[in-house]
Design goal:
The chain has five helices and seven strands. By secondary structure, the chain is α/β, with parallel strands linked by helices. The protein has one domain: P-loop containing nucleotide triphosphate hydrolases (Rossmann fold, 3-Layer(aba) Sandwich). Strands 1-7-6-2-5-4-3 form a seven-stranded mixed beta sheet, sandwiched between helices. Helix 2 packs across helix 3. One of its GO terms (molecular function) is transferase activity. InterPro entries: P-loop_NTPase, T6A_TsaE. Pfam families: TsaE. This is tRNA threonylcarbamoyladenosine biosynthesis protein TsaE.
């Protein structure tokens, strides 16, 4: 099967998850006009993340997942540059400011949640961002922040954040628009 066919299969698997299947949560929807704004949104989100946070990014190729993750890395104050870990699967970026490191994972080429679990992500001491991770992280953490990015025809992005589990229910202001 060609690469595009595999991408379609993965995309379908990653977007079929029913809303709310991980427990009570909070949802935020925003429109992001361009790459700079996506990066800035990532900086804001990164400043709110802490060790043990698991963020799952879903969206088509070119939607802005890695741009968002670069912003998250800047917000966390980690050593960069943050780039897509497609071929190495995961990269750890140590903190420069005594915060948690950023573990950036690209699950696109992984075939099962077990393969993701084999990466030994050190979730308890890190902020973990998993691109293409929907359907791959079930059971890895009690709380998960899912970020779905939809690229519109005019190049704006519609971003939907859904935080499930105690971390996001108890700390809803983290997701509040500013």
């Amino acid at each position: 099967m060609g690469r595009l066919g595999r991408h379609d299969r993965l995309r379908d698997r990653h977007t079929d998850r029913a809303a709310g299947d991980a427990g009570a949560g909070v949802t935020l929807r925003i429109d992001v006009p361009d790459a700079d704004a996506m990066h800035g949104f990532g900086v804001r989100l990164g400043r709110a993340l802490r060790a043990g946070d698991l963020v799952v990014l879903t969206g088509p190729l070119g939607a802005g997942k890695t741009t968002l993750t670069r912003g998250i890395g800047e917000g966390l104050g980690v050593r960069g540059p943050v780039s897509s870990p497609t071929f190495v699967l995961a990269r750890t970026h140590p903190s420069l400011v005594d915060g948690p490191p950023l573990v950036h994972v690209d699950a696109y080429r992984l075939g099962s949640p077990a393969e993701l679990d084999d990466l030994d992500l050190d979730l308890e001491r890190s902020a973990v961002v998993v691109e293409w991770g929907a359907g791959m992280v079930d059971g890895m953490a009690e709380s998960v922040l899912e970020v779905r990015i939809d690229r519109r025809d005019d190049d704006t992005r519609h971003v939907e954040l859904e935080g499930t589990g105690p971390r996001w229910v108890d700390d809803q202001q983290v997701l509040a628009p500013r």
